Amino acid sequence: MTDPTSDPTTEPPVLPTATYAVTGASGHLGRLAVDNLLRRGVPARNVFALVRRPDKAGDLSDLGVGVREADYDRPETLGPALEGIERLLLVSSPTVGNRLEQHTAVLRAADAADVGFVVYTSVLHADETELVLAPEHAATEDALQGSGLPFAVARNGWYTENYTGRLDEYLARGEIVGAAGDGRVSAATRADYAEAAVSLLTGDITDQQGYWELGGPAFSMADLAATITEVTGTDVTYRDLPAGEFTDVLRGAGMDEDTAGFVAALEASTAKGELETDSPALANLLGREPTSLADAIRAARL
Ligand SMILES: NC(=O)c1ccc[n+]([C@@H]2O[C@H](COP(=O)([O-])OP(=O)(O)OC[C@H]3O[C@@H](n4cnc5c(N)ncnc54)[C@H](OP(=O)(O)O)[C@@H]3O)[C@@H](O)[C@H]2O)c1
């Protein structure tokens, strides 16, 4: 499989008449992908939102798209959900630990339903990073490769929202506490990742296949603090702690042992640069620069 990252794809919809399905459509990323498909002019009748609880997806039905039940843990729902679907966006499950089984169930159903192209949202450098989240993504990528289905893997970096979602806390404390050292994060907004995934989904399959390392402009935690200060006018600094002390802070804040260890491991990966990429693929897929950190902070303040 070739690395397509140097092949800019800036023009949206090629196949408005194909049938598209998006899993996890009730979640943040999936919903943005559904919106993006419609914005590109794909008729709502060709778009299928796959959700665990159709009875709770009234907002999706209101868009005119088809809403189908698809529970990763109930394989019997997956075949009917994928009937007649030509292109599938498989948004990775949030259930860390069960994801390989869940994703494999979707891939089996996709194969049985003759889906023609699958886009899977993975994680940056999935096949070579020590990031604790990576093994399930890498194993899903292997399953995808082994399935024989044509596919593209969107190896997403961190969401900018992982930080902007904590803006009030940072501002109230006047500091960001972590153990990420000078490590930089090529974060991008969910909306940008969703748009990129839809570019892969709607594009010419021959050009889109392969592994796409996606991320925005890299920033360190000190850069994050400085940008928050600049945008909001409130002083925020970054306080870096040794890993052990950071874990103690998390425990002291009431976090259980496993979660504290998990969060500390993510910080260690950040410190090692495992969440950074200099790949231009996201900008290429968007046909513009990804949303800047400052703009994302501004938007989060509205
Ligand atoms: N790059 C990052 O920084 C980052 C951060 C967090 C997560 N992620 C990954 O990216 C994915 C998408 O992010 P997000 O922000 O959109 O997450 P999200 O808002 O939590 O959405 C997760 C979606 O998965 C669905 N889901 C959960 N269990 C399911 C099951 N058994 N069967 C079918 N659907 C199920 C949820 O459905 P319900 O509405 O029914 O719960 C929801 O629609 C996450 O699932 C996770 O794998 C990435």
Automatic annotation (TrEMBL):
Enzyme class name: oxidoreductase
EC number: 1.6.5.2
Keywords, ordered alphabetically: Oxidoreductase
Domain NAD(P)-binding: from-to ranges: 24-202
CDD domains cross-referenced by the UniProt entry: TMR_SDR_a
Keyword 4Fe-4S: no
InterPro entries: NAD(P)-bd_dom (IPR016040), NAD(P)-bd_dom_sf (IPR036291), NmrA-type_oxidoreductase (IPR052718)
Domain of life per record: Bacteria
Example GO molecular function: NAD(P)H dehydrogenase (quinone) activity
Any matching Pfam family: NAD_binding_10
Xref: PANTHER family: NMRA-LIKE DOMAIN-CONTAINING PROTEIN (PTHR47129:SF1), QUINONE OXIDOREDUCTASE 2 (PTHR47129)
Protein name: SDR family oxidoreductase
Organism: Actinomycetospora aeridis
